[in-house]
Amino acid sequence: MNAPVLAPPRFTDPTVFGRVAVLMGGTSSEREVSLDSGRNVLEALRSRGVDAFAVDGIPALLEAIGAGRVDRVFNILHGNRGGGEDGVLQGVCEALQVPYTGSGVLGSALTMDKVRTKQVWISEGLPTPRFQRIPPGGDPAGALRAAAAALGYPVFVKPSCEGSSVGVFRVLSEVDLAPAAEFAAGYPGELLAEQMIQGEELTVGILFDGTTHVALPSIHIVPAGEWYDYQAKYHADDTRYLCPGLEGAAEDEIRRLASAAFVSAGCHGWGRVDFMRDRATGALYLLEVNTAPGMTSHSLVPKAAAKLGIDYPSLCWRVLEATVGEGAHR
Question: Which residue range or ranges hold the ATP-grasp domain (predicted)?
Fold first, then answer.
C-alpha cells in the first residue's frame, strides 16, 4: 500500500452546502466531549464561509428541520441514548430526506455495539482480541469472574455500547474485579470482558474523498500513565502522539486492516479505527470503530489529517463534502 493520497476537494463554493446544522451535545454519557467537538467544528466551517449553526441534541434538530432551517447535518454527537452514533439519528435524517455526515443506519448501529462488531470481524477473518459477553442482570460479579477466568488475566471489562473509555476497567487479577462488578451491578446494558493485548495502542482515521475511503497515517498513542483512559484522552497534555505510528510493511498492514474493518462494518464517510499491537509478536488486533470521532484539541483524526497537509477547517470541509452528490445519505 502506498502513502495515503486523497483526491482534491470537489467544491470550493460554501453555498453548495446550504444551511448546515452542526449537531452536538445531546444526552449521552459523552455530552461534554461532543459539545467541545461541536464548538470546534462550527468555528471551522464558519471560517470557510459555510452557513453553519449549532443545534443541541436530536429533539432540537427535529424542530429546526420542521421549521425548514436545515439543508444538511454535520453530526458530531457522540455515543448512544441521545448521542448520534447508534443509528437513531441516521434513521430520522433518512426518513426526513436530510443529508448527514458519517455512516448510515447499519454502520452506526453495528459499530456502537462492540460485541456485534467483533462478531462481524471474526466472520470476515479479521483479528480482534478474544472476548466474553456479560449479559445484564443476574450475578455480575460471578459472570465477570467466570469470563475473566476463561480468557485469562489480564482483561479489560467495558460496556458493549459506550465510548470515550466510559465504564472501562483494567483487571490485572481477580482482586481487581470488585470495581468492575460494582459498575456492572448498576449498568443496564451488556458488558464484555476482553483479552488485554500487552503492547502499543494505535489508531487509524478513515476519510472519504468522493471516490474511495482512504486510510490516513496511523497514530501511536503514548500516554504518560499506564493506559489511555478518559483523563489521557481529553485532559492530559503529556500524552504523546507519534504519526505515522508504524513504518514500512507494518504501516501498510494497519492501514489495510483499518479499511477492511471499516467497510466490513458497513461504515461510510469518515471515522476512526482503534487497534492494539502485541509487543511480543507485532500482531495487530482491532478494538472498535468510531463513526463520529472526537474533534477536540486532543483528538486524533485531525492529527492524522494534518500529517497530509489537511488543516482542521479543511478536514471539516471534506467530511461535509461526503453529504453532497453520489453516495450521500438521503
Answer: 118-321
Q: Which residues of 269-306 are buried (b: 16+ CB within 10 A; e: fewer)?
A: bbbbbbbbbeeeeeebbbbbbbbbbbbbebbbbbbbbb
Q: Is 125 exposed, middle or buried (0-12, 13-18, 19+ CB in 10 A)?
A: exposed
pLDDT tens by residue, 117-158: 999 999 999 999 999 998 887 787 888 889 999 999 999 999
pLDDT tens, position by position, 216-230: 999 999 987 665 555
Q: Answer yes or no: is 86 a known binding residue.
A: no
In the chain, the domains with their CATH numbers are: 14-102 (3.40.50.20), 111-127+198-321 (3.30.470.20), 131-195 (3.30.1490.20)
**Residues belonging to the active site:** 30, 164, 299
274 is in an annotated binding site: yes
- 209 marked among binding-site residues: no
| The three three-digit cell numbers of residue 133, written as one number | 459477553
